[in-house]
Amino acid sequence: MKVLIDNGHGIETPGKRSPDGRFREYKYNREIARAVVEHLQLRGYDAELLVPEEEDISLKERVRRANYLTCQIGHPVQETIIVSIHVNAAGNGKRWYNATGWCCYTYYGHSLSDELADCLYEAAREHLPGHKIRTDFADGDPDFEAPFYLLKYTYAAAVLTENGFMDSQLSLAFLESDEGKKAIIALHVDGIENFIIKRSHEPL
Ligand SMILES: [Zn+2]
Is 85 exposed, middle or buried (0-12, 13-18, 19+ CB in 10 A)? Predict the structure, then answer.
Protein backbone atom coordinates (compact mmCIF):
# COMPACT_ATOMS: atom_id res chain seq x y z
CA MET A 1 0.00 0.00 0.00
CA LYS A 2 1.28 3.44 -0.97
CA VAL A 3 0.31 6.31 1.36
CA LEU A 4 0.32 9.85 -0.04
CA ILE A 5 0.09 12.63 2.53
CA ASP A 6 -1.08 16.01 1.28
CA ASN A 7 -0.70 19.28 3.17
CA GLY A 8 -3.14 22.03 2.30
CA HIS A 9 -2.23 25.46 0.87
CA GLY A 10 1.18 27.18 0.77
CA ILE A 11 3.31 30.02 2.07
CA GLU A 12 1.78 32.55 -0.36
CA THR A 13 -1.86 31.50 0.18
CA PRO A 14 -3.96 34.51 1.23
CA GLY A 15 -6.06 34.04 4.39
CA LYS A 16 -5.85 30.57 5.93
CA ARG A 17 -4.44 31.97 9.19
CA SER A 18 -5.63 32.98 12.66
CA PRO A 19 -7.35 36.40 12.92
CA ASP A 20 -4.14 37.82 14.48
CA GLY A 21 -2.07 36.37 11.62
CA ARG A 22 0.18 34.39 13.94
CA PHE A 23 -0.97 30.86 13.08
CA ARG A 24 -0.53 29.86 9.44
CA GLU A 25 -2.43 26.85 8.21
CA TYR A 26 0.04 25.90 5.43
CA LYS A 27 2.83 25.70 8.00
CA TYR A 28 0.93 23.62 10.52
CA ASN A 29 -0.34 21.26 7.81
CA ARG A 30 3.25 20.74 6.66
CA GLU A 31 4.59 20.13 10.15
CA ILE A 32 1.93 17.48 10.82
CA ALA A 33 2.19 15.93 7.33
CA ARG A 34 5.99 15.57 7.56
CA ALA A 35 5.73 13.92 10.97
CA VAL A 36 2.97 11.56 9.77
CA VAL A 37 5.12 10.47 6.80
CA GLU A 38 8.18 9.97 9.03
CA HIS A 39 6.24 7.89 11.56
CA LEU A 40 4.67 5.73 8.85
CA GLN A 41 8.08 5.19 7.26
CA LEU A 42 9.52 4.22 10.66
CA ARG A 43 6.76 1.62 10.92
CA GLY A 44 7.83 0.28 7.53
CA TYR A 45 5.13 1.76 5.30
CA ASP A 46 5.55 3.26 1.85
CA ALA A 47 4.55 6.83 2.70
CA GLU A 48 5.45 10.07 0.95
CA LEU A 49 4.54 13.74 0.86
CA LEU A 50 2.50 14.80 -2.14
CA VAL A 51 3.71 18.40 -1.75
CA PRO A 52 7.23 18.73 -0.30
CA GLU A 53 7.30 22.38 -1.36
CA GLU A 54 6.45 25.32 0.94
CA GLU A 55 4.63 26.99 -1.95
CA ASP A 56 1.01 26.29 -2.73
CA ILE A 57 0.84 23.69 -5.48
CA SER A 58 -2.36 23.96 -7.52
CA LEU A 59 -5.07 21.40 -6.84
CA LYS A 60 -4.80 20.33 -10.48
CA GLU A 61 -1.08 19.59 -10.06
CA ARG A 62 -1.70 17.82 -6.72
CA VAL A 63 -4.26 15.57 -8.44
CA ARG A 64 -1.87 14.99 -11.37
CA ARG A 65 0.89 13.91 -8.97
CA ALA A 66 -1.46 11.71 -6.98
CA ASN A 67 -2.90 10.00 -10.05
CA TYR A 68 0.55 9.53 -11.58
CA LEU A 69 1.79 7.80 -8.42
CA THR A 70 -1.45 5.81 -8.13
CA CYS A 71 -1.17 4.49 -11.68
CA GLN A 72 2.50 3.52 -11.62
CA ILE A 73 2.95 0.10 -13.20
CA GLY A 74 2.36 -2.71 -10.72
CA HIS A 75 0.15 -0.68 -8.38
CA PRO A 76 -3.59 -1.35 -8.61
CA VAL A 77 -5.67 1.74 -7.74
CA GLN A 78 -6.78 0.10 -4.48
CA GLU A 79 -3.14 -0.02 -3.38
CA THR A 80 -2.85 3.75 -2.88
CA ILE A 81 -4.52 6.03 -0.35
CA ILE A 82 -4.43 9.80 -0.02
CA VAL A 83 -4.87 11.77 3.20
CA SER A 84 -5.02 15.56 2.95
CA ILE A 85 -4.29 17.44 6.17
CA HIS A 86 -5.99 20.77 6.94
CA VAL A 87 -7.11 23.02 9.78
CA ASN A 88 -10.71 24.22 9.81
CA ALA A 89 -12.07 27.77 10.13
CA ALA A 90 -15.42 28.81 11.57
CA GLY A 91 -15.46 32.19 9.79
CA ASN A 92 -13.57 34.19 7.20
CA GLY A 93 -10.55 34.93 9.37
CA LYS A 94 -11.67 38.41 10.51
CA ARG A 95 -12.60 37.49 14.07
CA TRP A 96 -12.29 34.79 16.70
CA TYR A 97 -14.85 32.07 17.31
CA ASN A 98 -15.13 29.35 19.94
CA ALA A 99 -15.31 26.36 17.58
CA THR A 100 -13.43 23.20 18.39
CA GLY A 101 -13.37 19.68 17.07
CA TRP A 102 -12.02 17.22 14.55
CA CYS A 103 -13.64 15.86 11.40
CA CYS A 104 -12.93 14.11 8.15
CA TYR A 105 -14.36 14.47 4.63
CA THR A 106 -14.83 12.09 1.73
CA TYR A 107 -16.35 12.54 -1.72
CA TYR A 108 -20.03 11.60 -2.17
CA GLY A 109 -21.15 8.00 -2.30
CA HIS A 110 -19.68 4.94 -0.67
CA SER A 111 -16.18 3.86 -1.57
CA LEU A 112 -12.95 2.71 -0.01
CA SER A 113 -12.50 6.34 1.09
CA ASP A 114 -15.31 5.86 3.62
CA GLU A 115 -13.55 2.85 5.11
CA LEU A 116 -10.39 4.92 5.44
CA ALA A 117 -12.41 7.71 7.08
CA ASP A 118 -13.92 5.19 9.52
CA CYS A 119 -10.42 4.13 10.60
CA LEU A 120 -9.40 7.76 11.10
CA TYR A 121 -12.53 8.47 13.16
CA GLU A 122 -11.77 5.46 15.33
CA ALA A 123 -8.21 6.69 15.88
CA ALA A 124 -9.42 10.26 16.50
CA ARG A 125 -11.74 9.08 19.26
CA GLU A 126 -8.85 7.24 20.84
CA HIS A 127 -6.28 10.05 20.58
CA LEU A 128 -8.58 13.02 21.25
CA PRO A 129 -10.41 12.00 24.43
CA GLY A 130 -12.63 14.78 25.74
CA HIS A 131 -12.50 16.62 22.40
CA LYS A 132 -15.41 17.15 20.08
CA ILE A 133 -15.52 14.72 17.18
CA ARG A 134 -17.71 16.21 14.48
CA THR A 135 -19.84 13.72 12.56
CA ASP A 136 -22.45 13.64 9.82
CA PHE A 137 -24.46 10.43 9.90
CA ALA A 138 -26.84 11.54 7.10
CA ASP A 139 -25.50 8.80 4.83
CA GLY A 140 -24.93 6.26 7.59
CA ASP A 141 -21.25 6.89 8.33
CA PRO A 142 -19.49 9.48 10.50
CA ASP A 143 -17.61 11.44 7.83
CA PHE A 144 -18.78 14.58 6.06
CA GLU A 145 -19.13 14.52 2.29
CA ALA A 146 -18.09 17.33 -0.04
CA PRO A 147 -16.95 17.72 -3.64
CA PHE A 148 -13.45 18.94 -2.67
CA TYR A 149 -11.27 18.89 -5.77
CA LEU A 150 -8.66 16.48 -4.41
CA LEU A 151 -11.34 14.06 -3.20
CA LYS A 152 -13.29 14.25 -6.46
CA TYR A 153 -10.54 13.82 -9.06
CA THR A 154 -8.07 11.42 -7.48
CA TYR A 155 -8.41 7.79 -8.59
CA ALA A 156 -7.30 6.38 -5.24
CA ALA A 157 -9.25 6.43 -1.97
CA ALA A 158 -8.90 9.93 -0.56
CA VAL A 159 -9.95 11.72 2.62
CA LEU A 160 -9.40 15.22 3.98
CA THR A 161 -9.02 15.86 7.71
CA GLU A 162 -9.90 19.17 9.39
CA ASN A 163 -7.87 19.25 12.58
CA GLY A 164 -9.38 21.86 14.88
CA PHE A 165 -10.02 25.53 14.08
CA MET A 166 -7.47 28.23 13.24
CA ASP A 167 -9.88 31.01 14.32
CA SER A 168 -10.48 29.63 17.80
CA GLN A 169 -8.04 30.40 20.60
CA LEU A 170 -9.28 27.38 22.51
CA SER A 171 -8.63 25.10 19.55
CA LEU A 172 -5.22 26.64 18.77
CA ALA A 173 -4.04 26.27 22.36
CA PHE A 174 -4.44 22.52 21.93
CA LEU A 175 -3.27 22.25 18.31
CA GLU A 176 -0.03 24.08 19.01
CA SER A 177 0.78 22.28 22.26
CA ASP A 178 3.19 19.33 22.20
CA GLU A 179 0.35 17.16 23.45
CA GLY A 180 -1.97 18.39 20.71
CA LYS A 181 0.56 17.91 17.92
CA LYS A 182 1.35 14.41 19.17
CA ALA A 183 -2.34 13.51 19.25
CA ILE A 184 -3.02 14.87 15.74
CA ILE A 185 0.02 13.05 14.33
CA ALA A 186 -0.84 9.81 16.17
CA LEU A 187 -4.46 9.73 15.03
CA HIS A 188 -3.34 9.93 11.39
CA VAL A 189 -0.57 7.35 11.77
CA ASP A 190 -2.73 4.86 13.70
CA GLY A 191 -5.82 5.43 11.56
CA ILE A 192 -3.84 4.82 8.38
CA GLU A 193 -2.08 1.79 9.85
CA ASN A 194 -5.39 0.28 11.00
CA PHE A 195 -6.82 0.75 7.51
CA ILE A 196 -3.80 -0.94 5.91
CA ILE A 197 -3.99 -3.87 8.34
CA LYS A 198 -7.74 -4.24 7.74
CA ARG A 199 -7.28 -4.16 3.97
CA SER A 200 -4.53 -6.77 4.09
CA HIS A 201 -7.11 -9.21 5.51
CA GLU A 202 -9.66 -8.50 2.77
CA PRO A 203 -9.53 -9.76 -0.80
CA LEU A 204 -9.13 -6.96 -3.38
ZN1 LIG B 1 -7.24 24.14 4.53
Answer: buried
Give residue 201 CA to ligand 1 midpoint distance, Å: 33
Q: Which domains does the chain have, with CATH numbers?
A: 2-200 (3.40.630.40)
CA of 161 to the centre of ligand 1 (A): 9
Report how far residue 106's alpha carbon sits from residue 140's, in angstroms, rounded to the nearest whole number.
Answer: 13
Task: Kindly give the distance from the C-alpha atom of residue 185 to the centroid of ligand 1, in angstroms, as a whole number.
Answer: 16
Cα(80) to centroid(ligand 1), Å:
22
- pLDDT in 10s for each residue of the chain, 204 residues: 999 999 999 999 999 999 999 999 999 999 999 999 999 999 999 999 999 999 999 999 999 999 999 998 778 899 999 999 999 999 999 999 999 999 999 999 999 999 999 999 999 999 999 999 999 999 999 999 999 999 999 999 999 999 999 999 999 999 999 999 999 999 999 999 999 999 998 765
